[in-house]
Structure formats: structure tokens, C-alpha cells
Amino acid sequence: MNCSWIKISQNLQKGILVINQLDDTKFEQFLKRIVIKLQLQDTEIFTADERKKLQVIFKIDEETLLIAIKTIIYLYKRLLKFIFMPVDLQKDLIQIGFNTEKTEFIVKMWSLEIKPTLSELASKASNKCGESQKFSWKLNTELSSSLQKKCKIPKAYLLISNEKEENEIELTHSDLYAMFIQLESVQNDLDNLILL
């Protein structure tokens, strides 16, 4: 149970156990209410009367209900500080102890919450890049030197520039291949986000 984005404590584990026992049919509304109140930065998530009704609905005592509420608040505050692939988030939540149904509700709610942020980041990035970005490349091959006869060393030079600055990167074959693999991985992640 090791996740880099959340500290697994005894209180968290206890809260997860409580949440897993809550009725699935009522949990989604419960979760939505907490998330909405967090967005509004409301200090009181539920009134005393609402908490009593929730105790009856979920058939739990007040202390157990408060543990569930505090666990969800802590979890969401942590979740909103990171950007995940939904599949990875789902795996992490299951790994730390959530059951499949609760995990699906949490991932669904998180996806709805984070979508505007991702859209905003994408629009800012496209506005910054605009059409002023230029990309060019060249390939040089060092065929031999005084130290090594008949040695071929291919080097790629990538030039990325805009109106303000110009950056040139020199890459060997292995560097270029590693960069290609990373870009392909990023492209796959972006494609998966689009499919949501």
C-alpha cells in the first residue's frame, strides 16, 4: 500500500473501511454533497439535522459518520493537488483499500472536478504556443576523427524557437530514441484522456 500522493495512516485506513461499508446506492449523493461543499469552501459540510438523517440512512453512529466525512475531505484535498490518469487513480484507490464500487464513484467525481482545470490548462497552453512557435531540425554525422578512424556518430539538432527565445538541443541516436519513446507515451496518455 504505497502511493506517492497520499500518506497511508491508521486513521485513513479506518476511514476507508467505514466508507466501504456505506450503502452504494446512497454513497454517490453523499460524495457529491461533500465535494460541492468543498468547492464552496463551506466550513460546515452537513448540519446537525442532516448528520442525524445520514446516521439513519447509513445505519452508523455519529463518530463513524464523521470519520467517513473527514476521510473523504482529506482524500479530495489530496486528489485535487495531482493530475492522474483515471485508470491509475482507480488502481491506487483499490491498492489503498477502497472497494471497486466506491473507487468508481470517487474516480467519476474526481474526473468531473478536474475536467475544467485540464481544459483551462489546455487552452492556456495553446494560447501560449500559438502560431509563433517554430520547430526545425538537422542531422549531422561525424564520420571519423583523428582519434577514431571509420567511426560514425550521428547527431540530431532540434531547434525550438518563438519570438522571445531560441533553444537548440543536440541529441545522439540513443537520446533521440529515448525522447521518441517518452513522446509516444505522452501521446498515448493524451489519447486516453480524450476518450473519457
From TrEMBL:
Stored InterPro entries: COMM, COMMD10
Organism superkingdom: Eukaryota
Domain COMM: 134-185
Protein name: (apollo) hypothetical protein
UniProt lineage: Eukaryota, Metazoa, Ecdysozoa, Arthropoda, Hexapoda
